[in-house]
Amino acid sequence: MKYYDFIDKAPKIGSLVVIEGTERALAERALEVLLDRLLPSDMRDLNLERIPAAEWTDAARAREAVSAMPFLADRRVVVISDAQTLRAQPRRDLFEVMEAVPDGNTLIVLDLLSPRSQRPEPLGAQAGRAALRIDTSANEETRARFVDEVLAALGATAEPRVRAELARSEADLASVRNDLEKLALAGKKITYKDLEGESLAIEDPKAYRYASALVEGHVGEALGIAHEFFANDPRGAAIPLLSALATECGLLWELARPGGDLPARHKWRERVLRPIAGRVGERRARIAYERAVHGVESIVTGSAGSDPDDHRTLVERITAELSGLSRR
Fold first, then answer.
1. Are 108 and 80 in contact, with CB atoms under 8 Å apart?
2. pLDDT at position 139, please?
3. Count of helix runs (H) and strand runs (E) in the chain
4. Strand 106-110 relative to strand 77-81: parallel, antiparallel, unpaired?
5. In DSSP terms, which residues pair with 107 in a beta bridge?
6. What's the pLDDT tens digit per position in 26-51?
7. Which of 291-312 are b and which e, b meaning 16 or more Cβ less than 10 Å from the residue's Cβ?
8. pLDDT tens column, 113-167
């Protein structure tokens, strides 16, 4: 079920819900709506348990949580977030828990993968009809409605070209929301010139997808994006790829520092990057950042050579060097 179908049709909620797709902004809103429908706010402290994937050690805690009796409420709700970051065996353990949720309780799993993903296979696909599946993938129509909702919440308006550009772009909706919030502070009517000057949303997001995929450990996906870049623009591909990687590793380095915090523009990445930063540590995150920056510098100064094949080899080498960054 698509996200807005879930919002508009308010389907029955059973014992298992899987929120999938890749738009975290929609996933978080879907979770809020689910909790509002399942548990009155005054009952949540006693009947809601949240288990981030970063705290997953084995299935025992989740199994115990979903089996517990509700306290003065109709049901108990357990939320497991960022299941897409779990490795193969923990995902198998989680699926066993999903298969054994007792009637009367509800397990909500956020597994933010494309429903068409093959490695790993989405948990929703494995559960099939046993789960209410909410797909947060966004097409142009979904993006346009999301932009309208954000503008309405901000009490702001935007030129038609701004709305159209954001609806067509491939930037994640959390980033779109952050940009609109920032732009609305400067004036309640957002112009295209404002968007050009302040937003990442109208830039090619694929370089950032390469960087995030690599840092999150999806090396095959990262290499696939890099190869597509070089196929389309052999001479101009390396710098945007490595620049995006430097930005992503810089965010990781910031979160790995004691008391590290991301600027508002990048807050949407914190939920994914903070657990990785905890595993990587400050020293390794700094080295990764410096490696990406030096890669950019070597291309700009010419020390990496002028042949596009040299640049492609450099990107592939840096990708291989950082391929184990997010491993536990």
1. yes
2. 93
3. 15, 7
4. parallel
5. 16, 78
6. 999 999 999 999 999 889 999 999 99
7. bbbebbebbeeeebeeeeeebb
8. 889 888 889 999 999 999 999 999 999 999 999 999 999 999 999 999 999 989 9
In degrees and rounded to multiples of 5, residue 141 shows phi and psi of -65, -45
How far apart are alpha carbons 163 and 152 in whole angstroms?
13
CB 146 within 8 A of CB 25: yes
The pLDDT of residue 178:
73
- Euclidean distance between CA atoms 37 and 58, whole angstroms: 29
Strands 48-52 and 16-20, bridge-based pairing: unpaired
Distance CA 6, CA 266 (A): 28
Beta carbons of 77 and 35 less than 8 angstroms apart: yes
Q: In Å, what is the CA distance from 139 to each residue of 65, 77, 114, 136?
A: 36, 30, 13, 10
Q: Starting from the edge strand earliest in sequence, which strands make up the sheet with 132-135, in order?
A: 48-52, 77-81, 106-110, 16-20, 132-135
Which own/partner pairs from 260-266 qualify as long-range (CB within 8 Å, at least 24 positions apart)? 264/178, 264/182, 265/178, 265/179, 265/182, 265/200
**CB-based contact 262:238 (threshold 8 Å):** no
Which of 246, 314, 256 is CA-nearest to residue 284? 256
